[in-house]
Specification:
By secondary structure, this protein is α/β, with parallel strands linked by helices. The chain has 13 helices and eight strands. An eight-stranded parallel beta barrel has the order 1-2-3-4-5-6-7-8, surrounded by nine helices.
Length: about 260
């Protein structure tokens, strides 16, 4: 079976550098994949993607060594299984607030007896290899998003879910849930302290921990805290920032 880059990096005590795709374009995905990310996540929750967009984007990512992931729109087994069958080697699931919800999520990512994923890997066989069904349970990565006060309260139970590989913190929703500002790269002490508590508890359990960041500076800080997966930018933000920078540089030249 094709190696999952996330597991390779983590096995060597490294940090996964993850990119984010919200533009519904296989060309944009292919372009991003050429940058050399460890993984790229197709965002079906807040990105502008649906399954018909995500499929060719997964194919485009697969032209490189970058591992394709997907964030599903919700904790619903149908779309989780469908994206895995399409070749995603990991799923990020939003708004996991209880042990029962986490068990439902992880179960959808695993074939029996570890879970209840329905058999029919389709493109995953072509992309990951004919032996995919024998190794998928150990290769596919399941990351539950911790992004509410409720999830923090239920954290110990969530982290104890069998088969869960790790957590992924959404700081904007977490901030809102804690009565603070919704923002990436949070500086509010309440939000930062909560993030670090979640991180510490996850690592004590031997689980991986990811954080969604807006800037490379904050991502480096997150790594220093102990995160072993960081998202450092989204395609639409990087495009906008680069375009604005080019225009501003030209206007400054003409001034």
């Amino acid at each position: 079976m094709r190696n999952n880059r996330l597991r390779e990096v983590w096995a060597n005590s490294g940090v996964v550098i993850n990119g984010w795709l919200g533009i519904p374009s296989s060309v944009a995905a292919e372009n991003m994949a050429q940058a050399g990310w460890d993984s790229l996540t197709c965002d079906l929750q807040h990105g502008l993607l649906d399954y018909t967009n995500a499929l060719p984007m997964l194919q485009a990512i697969s032209t490189t060594n970058t591992t394709p992931l997907a964030r599903v729109p919700w904790n619903e087994p149908g779309i989780i299984m469908k994206l895995l069958d399409a070749g995603a080697l990991g799923i990020i699931c939003p708004m996991v607030n209880s042990r029962a919800q986490c068990e439902a999520f992880v179960g959808a990512c695993r074939y029996p007896p570890e879970g209840y994923r329905s058999y029919g890997p389709t493109r995953a066989l072509w992309y990951a290899g004919a032996d995919y069904p024998h190794h998928a349970n150990r290769s596919v990565v399941a990351l539950a998003m911790i992004e509410t006060r409720e999830a923090v309260h239920e954290l110990d139970a969530i982290l104890g879910t069998p088969g869960l590989d790790g957590i992924y913190i959404g700081p904007s929703d977490l901030g809102l849930s804690l009565g603070c500002e919704a923002r990436l790269d949070p500086v509010d002490p309440t939000v930062v302290e909560t993030i670090r508590i979640v991180l510490e508890k996850a690592r004590q359990r031997g689980l991986h921990a990811g954080l969604h960041c807006a800037t490379t500076a904050y991502a480096r800080q997150a790594i220093a805290w102990g995160f072993d997966m960081v998202t450092t930018g989204t395609d639409n933000v990087l495009l906008n920032q680069s375009a604005r920078r080019a225009v501003n540089e030209m206007r400054e030249r003409d001034a």
